[in-house]
Amino acid sequence: MQSHLISICSWSLRPRSPDMLVFDLQKCGIANVQLALVPLTESENWSNCKSILRDASIKIVSGMFEPVGEDYTTLETIAKTGGVRQDASWQKTLERSKASAVIASDLGLSLVTFHAGFLPHNSCQERTKMLDRLVQIADIFANNEITIAFETGQETAEVLSGVLEELSHPYIGVNFDPANMILYGQGDPVAAIKRLSPWVRQVHIKDAIAPLVTGTWGTEVVVGMGDVDWAQFIPAIPCGVNLVVEREAGENRIEDIQLAISYLKEQVC
Prior knowledge:
alpha/beta, 10 strands
């Protein structure tokens, strides 16, 4: 279990600058981070991020970029706007991916994650379009020897594994998030990670409670208080894959992340 490096998603801490990110990481007692890349490409506040993190001995284990125009208000809105689905924002997403690839290469990263979008399970024009766009993004990052990894949750493991087999791209993998499987109502995280194991490049440590009504959101909770069966899930994580704590709800992020890290260390030791 010592082969799993524990990190934190930078956006979970909601920092307004690299200095704030360093401060919060130090409060959490972790010197490893998955870094949101869009601020580095679109905000002057983050122009000196590389040097600040280096001087603080913070290791960037991976990056993340967000496709343009995603709307997480409801399941319906994110189904329409998530990932690479939207025609209206596709060119901006493509340009953002190019800028993110340049930044990721400069930071020396080998992995960048993002949501591909709700991938259709049947062959259709929409599926063909989305897969073509995902290959375009993969090739952009591959030119910099960077693997991209799709976030799980917006489709079942069966659908995602079918897409990955069809794409058969050496620079495409999976960022597995067990809570997302529950939040979106897309199946058991333990069975899903076993199905997707050949492609798993990173795991987000996040917990959730399943929705009471089909078609609505589940509820994100502190790690160890939700429906993820961590005793079964953690042994199913491929050896050597980094574990990145993510917290996207609640107003006590640092405390919640500290609890997650403590819980995780108890489980893996």
